[in-house]
Specification:
Structural class of chain A: alpha+beta
Distance between the termini of chain A: 18 Å
Number of helices of chain A: 5
Strand content of chain A: 25-35%
Helix content of chain A: 40-55%
Oligomer: heterodimer
Order of helices and strands of chain A: HEEEEEEEEEEEEEEEEHHHH
Radius of gyration of chain A: 22 Å
CATH architecture of the largest domain in chain A: Sandwich
Shape of chain B: globular
Strand order of the largest sheet of chain B: 2-1-6-5-4-3
CATH architecture of chain B: Roll
Order of helices and strands of chain B: HHEEHEHEEE
Helix content of chain B: 40-55%
Number of domains of chain B: 1
Number of strands of chain B: 6
Number of strands of chain A: 16
CATH topology of the largest domain in chain A: Jelly Rolls
Largest sheet of chain A: 16 strands, mixed
């Protein structure tokens, strides 16, 4: 099973147009690179990151990444990963930010810009300068400085023009757009505000995470069930082609390859890419948003063991764990953990 | 003739070795409890591994592990009158003590080093705590904490 997934991912990668590696151009303070293999090491100038690799910065860490045509400034306290998914039949790079903030600066737009993903939304870039903030509760704030950006969540889209911003809570459509302050938003103050709201009503915050997780589960299962249909069909077609070759009908076998097997292989590989993409996104949500909420409430369990607010939070947290373990964990690989 | 003595000698060696392991477990618990009870969050974070298993959560960020110890100590958490109830070498099913899940299983498989032990303590208030540790003559490392439960 694992080798099938790896083979499909390899095929998807080979056909990828949007998956572009990124290089570490500058680093300072506490910053590490986590490779897809699970290896973690201090970030160093010249490190090359591919799909599945990520950067984590500590309280004083900073990393500048360069990808084809875009510079990413990764601020302290950030968890950032390079991902990819299938969109409109082609592989598209996804820059995933789960926690912290990243400023994106594009030299020029090619129309093949990677998507930007947070725990609560996905943004299509049509602009050249924007900053994305991801908060402790899974909220995202997207601020456009130059150009245009389309932000999508829960089926609703908001188009942002220069000097416009929008905030999105997990499991919710984007909020109303607004004009951000002229000076750069201070991530810490913005995040502290999110933290205060979370601590005031942890159950409500966990409810938002649950809703977002349900979205990822729907998407994962959609791609997985289609993959379960396509995969045996592909095997049958390959078997039929083998029979044609054995019967000496090479021309028919070649036509079958071109017209049936190749498109079917591509679609099957894309389905693997998508169920992997959504399940890994769900893991990030569960670990860096839901899991950190649990960590924040852990000391509260010592301070106020019988508090009704805590009980309500824990009930939803347990639902998150059950949903995750039932629907997402079976789609994950050990390297993801 | 040699065989006649081999079995009792082996039995004595085994008893001595398990006695030494028990002593090491007890010393490990004492030293970790001392750090908790004297509020040394920074030192606790320093001997904690990354990733770290907290209940069923895998903490991968160093700031999160530091936050865990600091926040617990600030909340007044102490290991009062800790008593070692049991200690065992980590085995294939040890992850279930934390949670019977794919994540906990993978954590144990990928990140828990050979020679690690699961120590179960009971504190003065009758509650239990599970520590996942690796204790050697030269160092002690905590890779997991569950409880109090």
């Amino acid at each position: 099973m694992r080798s099938c997934v790896l083979a499909a991912l390899f095929l998807a990668a080979a056909l990828a147009a949007g998956a572009v590696p990124a290089g570490v151009a500058y680093t300072e303070g506490q910053a590490s690179v986590r490779f897809k293999s699970g290896t973690v090491r201090d970030a160093a100038i010249g490190d090359i990151l591919n799909t599945g690799d990520g950067v984590r910065t500590g309280a004083n860490g900073f990393v500048e990444l360069e990808q084809r045509g875009v510079t990413l400034r990764i601020d302290p306290g950030t968890v950032f990963t390079l991902m990819e998914k299938e969109q409109k039949g082609r592989t598209t790079g996804v820059l995933s930010l789960v926690l912290g903030s990243v400023k994106f600066r594009y030299d020029k737009l090619t129309g093949q810009e990677p998507l930007i993903q947070t725990a609560s939304c996905i943004a299509g870039v049509r602009g050249t300068e924007l900053t994305v903030y991801a908060g402790v509760d899974g909220s995202a704030l997207i601020v456009v400085e130059k150009g245009a950006v389309e932000v999508e969540a829960e089926g609703a889209t908001v188009a942002l023009a220069p000097e416009e911003a929008v905030e999105v809570r997990p499991g919710q459509p984007p909020g109303a757009k607004f004009r951000p302050p002229r000076e750069r938003i201070d991530y810490r103050s913005w995040n502290d505000e999110k933290l205060r709201a979370l601590m005031a009503d942890p159950a409500a915050a966990m409810q938002d995470v649950l809703q977002q997780l349900e979205f990822y589960i729907r998407k994962t299962e959609e791609a997985w069930s289609l993959h379960q249909e396509f995969s045996p069909r592909l095997q049958r077609e390959r078997e039929a082609r083998r029979e044609l070759i054995q019967a000496g009908r090479t021309g028919e076998a070649q036509a079958m390859d071109r017209d049936i097997i190749f498109p079917l292989s591509l679609e099957t590989a894309n389905l693997v890419l998508n169920y992997r993409y959504y399940s890994v996104a769900a893991l990030s949500l569960r670990r860096f948003v839901g899991g950190r909420m649990y960590l924040l409430q852990k000391a509260e369990q010592i301070r106020h063991p019988g508090s009704p607010a805590l009980a309500s939070f824990l009930e939803r947290y347990r639902s998150m764990l059950s949903l995750f373990e039932e629907h997402i964990a079976p789609r994950l690989l050990e390297v993801d953990i | 003739m040699r065989m006649k003595y081999a079995i009792p000698v082996l039995a004595v060696l085994l008893a001595l070795s398990s006695c030494a392991t028990l002593k090491r477990d007890e010393r490990g618990v004492e030293s970790i409890a001392r750090l908790v009870n004297t509020g040394q969050a920074e030192r606790l974070a320093g001997i904690s591994t990354l990733p770290f298993l907290l209940d069923q959560e895998i903490l991968v960020l160093p700031q999160d592990v530091a936050f865990f110890w600091t926040s617990m100590i600030e909340a007044g958490y102490r290991l009062k009158e800790p008593r070692l109830e049991g200690g065992s070498a980590v085995g294939p099913d040890s992850y279930k003590e934390f949670r019977d899940s794919m994540e906990a299983r993978t954590f144990f498989k990928k990140y828990v080093k050979k020679g690690s032990r699961l120590l179960e303590l009971r504190t003065g208030d009758g509650r239990r705590v599970l520590l996942l540790v690796r204790l050697t003559a030269f160092s002690r490392k905590i890779s997991g904490f569950k409880g109090p439960f």
